[in-house]
Structures are given as C-alpha cells and as structure tokens.
Amino acid sequence: MKSQRIGFLGGGNMARALIGGLIGRGTPVSQLSVGEPDALARQRLAQDFQVPASADNLAAIANCDLIILAVKPQTTGDVLGALSAELRRTRPVLLSVAAGIRIASLSAWAGAGVPVIRAMPNRPALIGAGISGLFAGPEVSAAQRELAEEVMRAAGQSVWVSREADLDVVTALSGSGPAYFFLLAEHMMQAAIAAGLAPDVARQLAIATLHGAGALAHASDGDLARLREQVTSKGGTTAAALGVFAEADFPGIVTRAIDAAAQRSREMAATFGNAN
C-alpha cells in the first residue's frame, strides 16, 4: 500500500482482521501501529503480526495518514476527544468501524477539518471473506476514499452507500446477517437430529450446506431468486419445505428482523453519539 502509515485505535478482532489482511497483501509492518490499552491484546499483536502496539494512543497515531477507529461505540467520544488536538494538527483520514456512531459526532470529537469515513464490516472479515459498507461525506476527496476502500478490501469486499442512514440497513443486513444464517443452520441441524440423524452427521451436513450455498451464490450472477428456483422442483421436497416457510410468514419475519436491527443501530447512535 504505497508508503501510507496506518494507525489503529483498538486492537480487537476487527483490527486484527484488517492487520492480517493488510500484511497478507504486502503492507510492511513498519507502516502499521496500534493503540491498545489491554496488555494481553498488545502481546498477541506483537506475537502474531510483529506490529508495534502501545498503550499510548497518541504515540500510535503519530505521523499516520489514515487512522482506523476500532473501539467500542460507547468509548469513541473519550478516545477521540483525548486525541483531538493532534488530529486537528495532522488531519489524517479517520476511518471508523464503530457501529452506529454518526459522522457528525465523530467530527465533533475529532475536530474540524479531519476527514471522516464510516465503514460497517462484518465478522467473516476475520477470514478475509467479509464485506463492508462505506460512506463518506462530500468533503472527503477521491484519493482519501480510495485509501479507505483499499484498507477495507484487505478483509473482503466493500461497497459504497449514498446516504449515511443506509449504514443502519447495512448493519442489519450484512453486519448482523451472519448470525441469521447460523441460526437457520443451527435449527436445521437440530431438526435433523430430532428426525433421527446422528448429531455429528447433522452438524457436518448443516455446515457444509451453509458454506456451499454461500459459495454457489458468490460464484453466480447474483440472482438469488433464480438460484432458489433452480433447487426447487415443482411438487418436490424443497417445495414442500418452502411451503411451510411461506405459511409461517417467513418473508415478514425477515423484514421485521432487519427493521429491528436497523432501529437498534439508530438507537445506538442516539445513545452513544451524544455521550460527550
């Protein structure tokens, strides 16, 4: 990644996913640094990636071109407020993966003139298979957007949304989405066990089906309805199962679940975004 220096505020799972992905794509360790208060987390970063990690956030972001804010939403105000003077002086790109926290709040804490971009990644980023929704305001340059996107691609795919409010829906769809698929596979496994299948066989079949369906969708042209139809023979076993889903208002259940997750994202912004 050319010669840009990248600093991380927070060394948890998402930071580790991005660090591992960046190093795997050829970014020198010398261009990375981490601010992390937990001593054990700093030790793991040093052991696993040889990345310098410090309890001093100010030292971690020194001379950085881009800073990734990867802390818990409720701590963002305190973390950025303590660094505001330095951020205003150096004006690095601030790329936040803190769920729900709006750019207005991030800018108020970081200080005027600091370009802010928000990203909503998901947990498959831990194995390089994630996808992130990104949003930036008009004050962020094309080069700054490109830098942020390049960083997020280290952990998977990325897409830009046109409105910041869309990130609440991104959170509900892809951010929380893996749990929905895991829940369905878990209940499929349990139903198969109840029907007499050996637990280890049911587990293996459920996990492989989850993986294979995702891989098939990923390799396709993206027409999910057509993929479903190709598995569904008229009057067959799949049609019988889908009929049960329809009778239980499965589409309505999914819609309400997505709406609930998006609403919670908005609530988190209101709660933690006004903390300071």
Task: Please tag this protein with its features.
276 residues, Rossmann fold, 2 domains, 55% helix
Please specify the SSE layout and strand pairing.
Blueprint: E1 6-9, H1 13-24, E2 32-35, H2 39-49, E3 53-54, H3 57-60, E4 66-69, H4 76-90, E5 93-96, H5 103-110, E6 116-120, E7 130-136, H6 142-152, E8 156-160, H7 166-175, H8 177-194, H9 199-218, H10 224-231, H11 237-247, H12 250-272
Parallel strand pairs: 1-2, 1-4, 2-3, 4-5, 5-6, 7-8
Antiparallel strand pairs: 6-7
Note down, in words, how this protein is organized.
The chain contains 12 helices and 8 strands. With 276 residues, it is an alpha/beta fold. The chain has 2 domains: 6-162, NAD(P)-binding Rossmann-like Domain (Rossmann fold); 175-266, Orthogonal Bundle (ProC C-terminal domain-like fold), CATH 1.10.3730. Strands 3-2-1-4-5-6-7-8 form an 8-stranded mixed β-sheet, with helices on both faces. Strand 1 (6-9), helix 1 (13-24) and strand 2 form a beta-alpha-beta unit. The radius of gyration is 21 Å and the shape is elongated. The model has no long low-confidence stretch (mean pLDDT 94).
